[in-house]
Amino acid sequence: MKPSKLLLWSILVVVVLAALPTFAQSHEKEYNIPFSFNVGKEVRPAGHYAVSSVFESSLRIRRLDGTGAIVISSMAVESADRTSPCKLVFHRYGEKYFLAQAWLGYSSTGRELFRSGEEQEMASNNKAQDPIVVAEK
């Protein structure tokens, strides 16, 4: 897909999501994330967040204090472990954390975020550290 088409598609998804009432809010999982982290091109501060899957192709990450939300495209990933708890998985490079996966407990399917350009650059220049897991609060 050409970058301009991808940008238009992304904008359309964001506009549609903004126009809808809090879709899938009943399926939100809450997490206390003790460090700032990157999601897409944005840096989010440490804090309490609610994460939900929307339209089966995106994640909604919302601060519980009401100071911001983001919707980001993701792809499905499978796990053989159907008993895995709800969790977020972060990649860490030095002191930077990147949200990589969300397992929201619906099934053995989770959501994986696409690596941003910054994360790809960090991964190529730094040795990857063990993934950081934050469980549902």
What report would you give on this structure?
By secondary structure, the protein is of the alpha+beta class. It has one domain (23-135). The chain contains two helices and ten strands; from the N terminus they run H-E-E-E-E-E-E-E-E-E-H-E. The protein has an eight-stranded antiparallel sheet with strand order 1-4-5-6-9-8-7-10. Strands 2-3 form a two-stranded antiparallel sheet. The radius of gyration is 15 Å and the shape is globular. The chain starts with a helix and ends with a strand. The model is unreliable at 19-26 (pLDDT under 50).
What's the order of the H and E elements?
HEEEEEEEEEHE
Computed over alpha carbons, the radius of gyration is: 15 Å
Strand content: 35-45%
Main beta sheet strand tally, sense and closure: 8 strands, antiparallel
Give the CA-based shape.
globular
The strands making up the biggest β-sheet line up spatially as 1-4-5-6-9-8-7-10
Task: Work out the number of β strands.
Answer: 10
Uncertain residue ranges: 19-26
Tell me the structural class.
alpha+beta
Query: Helical segment tally?
Result: 2
- Mean of pLDDT: 83
